[in-house]
Amino acid sequence: MITEVLTRFGIEHTFVDMTDLNAVAENIRPNTKVIYMETPSNPLLKVTDIQGVVKLAKAHGCLTFLDNTFMTPALQRPLDLGVDIVLHSATKFLAGHSDVVAGLAVVKDEELGKELYKLQNAFGAVLGVQDAWLVLRGLKTLHVRLKQSSESAAAIANIWLVTQRSKKCIIRGFRTTQAMTSSAIKRTGLAPCCRSAWPMKKRPGRSSETSACPCSPSALARSSRFYRTRRKCRMRPCRKTSDSAAALPTACCG
Q1: The whole model's pTM is what?
Q2: pLDDT score of 166
Q3: Sheet order of strands, 63-67 included
Q4: CA 157, CA 224: separation in Å to the nearest integer?
Q5: H or E stretch including 74?
């Protein structure tokens, strides 16, 4: 899109490591109009300091665009961090059922919204009624789907690391990933793990609320013990385990 399509319209571009604010600042040119971010990035899940980039953009009179397809509004809300336009491939997590092709552009500023509407009306870039309904249907289960996929990813990653003795697992906030400081977490709007997506639960005998996040040390330790007691299964249904364990081949593979 950028290198082969936009260049035909005389639109110039510069690729920058968005995790380095100094590099971003050094590459802003007099004719720079937009700073585009994707965070976490695809596929290495690198995290950009959203508020830091927004400050740079405002200082140079630039707009900020952010692709929030990975996180969705359920886990990250860039508009609250000052981003001008948030983009989504609604085909993926938002719709969630692989039966619609859609994209979304979301703004908070009313005037900017009117400008987008002019373009939308001029190009006829609107979803059909059925497609719009399919996206709305997917939004109803977004939180449930993200919660389950995050739990599964945490369990699978922990088990896989035990079997492979891997030195690194690219899951933001996982115990082998470089820790983010609290200030960086605040700037990005991204929790250190999927903890922000889980409601806080009160446990018996405790006055304070605790998180039910599956990436917590206790949850990871439990899944690790679960694996070690079943590591002889060798990727086939385990007859020596309970029915619930046998139904989870990823949790009893050797």
Answers
A1: 0.68
A2: 56
A3: 34-38, 63-67, 85-88, 104-107
A4: 10
A5: helix 72-75
Contacts of 187 (CB under 8 A, 6+ apart): 49, 50, 51, 52, 81
Give the residues across from 120 on adjacent strands.
Answer: none
Rounded to whole angstroms, the Cα distance separating 128 from 112 reads: 23
- Enumerate residue ranges in the chain where pLDDT < 70: 161-162, 164-254
Beta strand ranges found along 24-125 (DSSP E): 34-38, 63-67, 85-88, 104-107
What is the predicted pLDDT for the residue at 242?
A: 37
Q: How far apart are the C-alpha atoms of 50 and 152, rounded to whole Å?
A: 28
Q: What is the pLDDT of residue 172?
A: 63
pLDDT of residue 186: 46
Asked if 80 and 190 count as a contact pair (C-beta separation under 8 A), the reply is no
Cα dihedral 42, 47, 49, 51 in deg (nearest 10) = 60
The pLDDT tens digits of the residues spanning 104-115 come to 999 999 999 999
| φ, ψ of residue 66 in degrees (nearest 5) | -140, 125
Q: Is 86 within 8 Å of 66 (Cβ atoms)?
A: yes
161 to 82, 108, 154: CA distances (angstroms)? 37, 42, 11
Q: How far is the C-alpha of 48 from the C-alpha of 53, rounded, in Å?
A: 8
